[in-house]
Amino acid sequence: MIQRSTKRKANIKCPPMGLETMKIDDFQLHASTTKRYGLGAHRGRLNIQAGLYEDDLYDGAWCAGRDDPLQWFEVDARRLTKFTGVITQGRSSLWSSDWVTSYKVMVSNDSHTWVTIRNGSEDVIFRGNQEKEIPVRNILPTPMVARYIRVSPQSWFSSGNICMRVEILGCPLPDPNNYYRRRNEVITTDKLDFKHHSYKDMRQLMKVVNEMCPNITRIYNIGKSYNGLKLYAIEISDNPGEHEAGEPEFRYTAGSHGNEVLGRELLLLLMQFMCMEYLSGNPRIRHLVEETRIHLLPSVNPDGYEKAFEGSELSGWSLGRWSSNGIDIHHNFPDLNTILWEAEAKKWTPRKTSNHHIPIPEWYLSNNASVAVETRALITWMEKIPFVLGGNLQGGELVVTFPYDKTRTQGVTRESTPTPDDHVFRWLAFSYSSTHRRMTDASQRVCHTENFAKEDGTINGASWHTAAGSMNDFSYLHTNCFELSMYVGCDKFPHESELPEEWENNRESLLVFMEQVHRGIKGVVRDAQGRGIPNATISVEGINHDIRTAADGDYWRLLNPGEYRVTARAQGYGLTSKKCEVGYEMGTSTCDFTIGRTNLSRIKEIMERFNKQPIRLPHSNKQLQAPRSRERRQGTS
């Protein structure tokens, strides 16, 4: 028997059931008819994205096989559920314009006898979409308790067809006998603040963490957004506020696309977790904090987040993605790939153009360049701190991408374009994906169009889609830092109720990836007097990408296990090489270098000290005076 709930106030509180997040499996979705397989009921999920080409297996909606009011889209909740609302979109497509403008809603307990939602004596006709992308939410006049729910289109865009993407709002009722539900539940034991945080809430939470752990945390900002919001970061270290020689620097950033908010919340959860676990004496966390300087920047684009914060279900796919002046921050960095590749083609490397720390072009630094203030703040931060490893958390997919992000062949949109450190990047990407609860799960449904699980949840960025000026490529070519992108969930803006499970999905991955900063070799490059040499170059034989030492002469070079011939050199100094070995156990191998000044550099230094004038030594003058006096005596005689 269909039941009507008497608590109207509960309508808004019921969360999305999970069509977008994939909590609802494909076999729970049904439809009256289907245009073709790629437009089947399994594609009728809110915000699902279509492939570039039509008529493939991954189209962007459920589309009915016929256009008439007898069509329907059905969701089987597999248990009694209090249904409170429906959210709809049109079809995701570059070429077609299809959406439903009105619909009825029906519920059932057995999928045979259906009750249409009524308002008094009349069937309710819910207003649908006016275009294909902006989600429209309708709340049922009275919550309905049932197992099945159907959406039945009544009218649609006159130049299109019946096509829908749907999310259902509903609260599952308690059912201890429902094995299917219990098998799929994920419960966290961490006592953390699982909610979406506004800008003000985020600042307050960071302050609370700092007050809980004042000895290992420091809050600072790297600059301001276009609208003047500070870009706050928190440092976690046993000596916050200073770089310790020999200790690597690590960073996580999130929210460069303001509507991809899961990464932002994961970093806020991570800082809480690390503080609490450090205080409780967790040896793993204590080791991380004492041996690493960790920086967490949860919101690169706070302006975009404020736009998307209108509602997790109604933010759509792109609202809030860009900065306030319309710039995609993550792809707003200078394109150093082209500079390097052109130099290599002309055989200018390494004499005229280095294979690392490539300078930023002058045009990019001008005030007229289309560069977001957030991007400039990030670049200054990346240049100031000698980061070794970094990850930027994004959303909308389940995959880890690594450089290069831009294809080397001009005009090609997808092409494997590896860096000289491809093997290291592949390991780093796998360290995250393999410890994520869902990324490498072969049974995990495709988020949109790509099956990344068959590639171990990782992909070279350019193999996915080319993107010039990415943060990952810039970080690799302009600094020492190896940067990767973690796409941490299909849903860019998951409902608050999903955050505990998403934390469980990503917690181990976040920790394991941080620990990879201690893989490879480290050391100090010193002169003959034992002083550290900054900006010395560290080269590894067989890898055409060098790094540089930090201000104290210390360096870190990420490498996979093996034996390597490593060379240290610096301007004005000679060079020295040695064999360095990286083991399979976690922890960097120490490889120090001592290099001496070259004769030429000593001469130059002396010349500069005396303003490049010939040096007149006192004893030389006496030697010159004796012959002259003899000459005068001879002339007199």
Automatic annotation (TrEMBL):
Name by which UniProt lists this protein: Inactive carboxypeptidase-like protein X2
Species this chain originates from: Takifugu rubripes (Japanese pufferfish)
Pfam families given in the database record: CarboxypepD_reg, F5_F8_type_C, Peptidase_M14
InterPro entries hit by this protein: CarboxyPept-like_regulatory, CARBOXYPEPT_ZN_1, FA58C, Galactose-bd-like_sf, Peptidase_M14, Peptidase_M14_domain
Domain of life: Eukaryota
Cross-referenced Gene3D superfamilies: Carboxypeptidase-like, regulatory domain, Galactose-binding domain-like, Zn peptidases
Peptidase M14 domain segment(s): 195-517
SMART domains for this protein: FA58C, Zn_pept
UniProt-annotated stretches for the region Disordered: 612-637
Listed Basic and acidic residues bias regions: 628-637
Family the entry assigns: Belongs to the peptidase M14 family.
GO cellular component: extracellular region
Localization annotation: Secreted
TM regions (residue ranges): none
A molecular function (GO) term: zinc ion binding
One of the protein's GO biological processes: proteolysis
SUPFAM superfamilies: Carboxypeptidase regulatory domain-like (SSF49464), Galactose-binding domain-like (SSF49785), Zn-dependent exopeptidases (SSF53187)
